[in-house]
């Protein structure tokens, strides 16, 4: 059994970098080898028998992919490949670009030997992104997006014939032949680049963004927006606790269009949380903002903003120009940590208040009164809750009499 480190790890090693992502290719049974590694590290191994692949997560490390050396063929554009197990030389020919068609031997007698295609090292040295064969983008259209990512990350040039093949594939709408999840994954990977706006501006230049999102216009200041959102994300502790950076950056990506066009984009990407955020931002702009602008009471602001997605609140803080609104929201975030009702559901049940909608409303009223400084002690809360419950019962009696 021969084992090789392959792809981006070897490429980056040749460029003088150590990549955190490690992919192994095995001549033989890649799944069996992965299971042995997983057993050694006492971790689980996910296997995919059809493709001869496996994934393990070593505690404290990133995931590691294991692949049985193979040749691939694609029944139609954008389909999953049909595989035939092969040797490392055949495996290299199925790679996306020549600069990634490299394998570092790990077997003792040839340890350190690098296997590569004829153009791999010349292209790496001269900074060229080149496909290995003319049907590459037809076989896997996500390579269009990957080519741009590598072009911008390494400041390389896409080889002219490769660029022509890309444009042909874009014109033929090949990206629509693959799943939305695969497109979304490429977008999320682009967000992890040091200058993600370069990827999206280049994609727009090539007509990719228009092909995927006909209504989308990329804002000319996208880089400034990404930088601003990233800085806010790093500075606001609550955002890192509840959100990932890729979630945050999806919002400025679609900031060049208004509601409901942005909603159409989020629905296409099957991002329900982003659709919720766009709806909430629209509602905030139309109905909630003016209420918060006019109030000095935290309770009133909390009642208006209760239930908003954490990303919605983050975006409001990023975009809001009114310092009073910013101060109110930040005060609410601080209060979320420091201010709590002393009474809980069990305490209300002892007052005879049953679980359900009414109890939820009373707990909300208690919290609002605490925020506004009306209630100071547990006894204050008990009296306040008892009075609210009494008033509720009286209202029910009046309704019964009227009917």
Q: What coarse outline follows from CA principal-axis ratios?
A: elongated
Distance between the termini: 84 Å
Instruction: Quickly count the helices.
Output: 21
Helix content: 55-70%
Mean pLDDT: 93
> Which radius of gyration do the C-alpha atoms yield?
28 Å
Major sheet size, sense and barrel closure: 7 strands, mixed
Cross-sheet strand order for the largest sheet? 3-4-5-2-1-8-9
Number of strands: 11
- The residue ranges in which pLDDT falls below 50 over 5 or more consecutive positions are none
Counting helices, strands and paired strands, the structural category is alpha+beta
Report the β-strand fraction as a percent range: 5-15%
Can you describe this structure in just a few lines?
Helices cover 56% and strands 11% of the residues.
Q: How would you explain this protein's 3D organization?
A:
- With 403 residues, the chain is α+β, with helices and mostly antiparallel strands.
- 56% of the residues lie in helices and 11% in strands.
- The strands form three sheets. A seven-stranded mixed beta sheet has the order 3-4-5-2-1-8-9. The protein has a two-stranded antiparallel ribbon with strand order 6-7. It has a two-stranded parallel ribbon with strand order 10-11.
- Helix 16 runs antiparallel to helix 20 and helix 20 packs across helix 21.
Which SSEs are present, and which pair or pack?
Blueprint: E1 2-6, H1 8-14, E2 23-27, H2 30-40, E3 45-48, E4 53-57, E5 63-68, E6 70-73, E7 82-85, H3 88-92, E8 102-105, E9 114-116, H4 120-126, E10 128-129, H5 136-139, H6 142-154, E11 157-158, H7 160-171, H8 180-191, H9 196-205, H10 208-212, H11 222-235, H12 237-242, H13 245-253, H14 261-268, H15 272-294, H16 298-305, H17 310-319, H18 323-338, H19 345-350, H20 357-371, H21 378-402
Parallel strand pairs: 2-5, 10-11
Antiparallel strand pairs: 1-2, 1-8, 3-4, 4-5, 6-7, 8-9
Helix pairs in contact: 6-8, 6-9, 11-13, 14-15, 15-16, 15-17, 16-20, 20-21
């Amino acid at each position: 059994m021969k084992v090789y480190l392959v792809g981006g790890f070897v490429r980056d090693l040749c460029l003088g970098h150590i990549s955190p992502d490690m992919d192994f290719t095995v001549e033989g049974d890649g799944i069996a080898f992965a299971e042995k590694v997983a057993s050694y590290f006492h971790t689980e191994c996910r296997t995919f028998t059809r493709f001869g692949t496996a994934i393990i997560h070593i505690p404290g490390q990133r995931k590691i992919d294991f692949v049985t050396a193979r040749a691939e063929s694609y029944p139609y554009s954008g389909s999953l490949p049909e595989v035939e197990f092969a040797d490392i030389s055949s495996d290299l020919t199925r790679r996306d670009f020549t600069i990634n068609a490299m394998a570092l031997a790990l077997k003792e007698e040839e340890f350190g030997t690098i296997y590569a295609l004829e153009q791999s090292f010349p292209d790496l040295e001269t900074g060229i992104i080149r496909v290995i064969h003319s049907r590459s983008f037809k076989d896997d259209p996500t390579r269009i997006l990957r080519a741009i990512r590598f072009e911008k990350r390494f400041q390389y040039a896409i080889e002219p014939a490769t660029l022509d093949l890309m444009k042909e594939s874009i014109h033929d709408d090949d990206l629509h032949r693959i799943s939305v999840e695969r497109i979304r994954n490429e977008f999320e990977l682009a967000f992890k680049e040091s200058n993600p706006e370069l990827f999206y501006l280049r994609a727009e230049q090539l007509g990719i963004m228009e092909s995927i999102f006909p209504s989308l216009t990329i804002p000319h200041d996208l880089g400034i927006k990404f930088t601003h959102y990233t800085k806010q994300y790093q500075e606001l502790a609550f955002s890192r606790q509840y959100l990932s950076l890729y979630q945050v950056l999806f919002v400025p990506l679609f900031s060049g269009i208004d509601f409901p066009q942005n909603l159409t984009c989020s629905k296409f990407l099957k991002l329900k949380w982003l659709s919720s955020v766009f709806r909430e931002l629209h509602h905030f702009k139309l109905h909630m903002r003016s209420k918060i602008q006019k109030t000095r009471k935290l309770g009133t602001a909390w009642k208006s903003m209760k239930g908003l997605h954490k990303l919605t609140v983050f975006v409001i803080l990023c975009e809001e120009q009114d310092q009073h609104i910013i101060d109110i929201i930040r005060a609410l975030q601080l209060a979320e940590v420091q201010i709590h009702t002393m009474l809980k559901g069990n305490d209300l049940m002892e007052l005879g208040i049953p679980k359900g909608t009414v109890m939820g409303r009373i707990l909300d009223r208690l919290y609002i009164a605490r925020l506004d400084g009306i209630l100071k002690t547990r006894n204050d809360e008990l009296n306040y809750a008892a009075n609210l419950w009494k008033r509720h019962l009286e209202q029910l009696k009046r309704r019964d009499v009227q009917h």
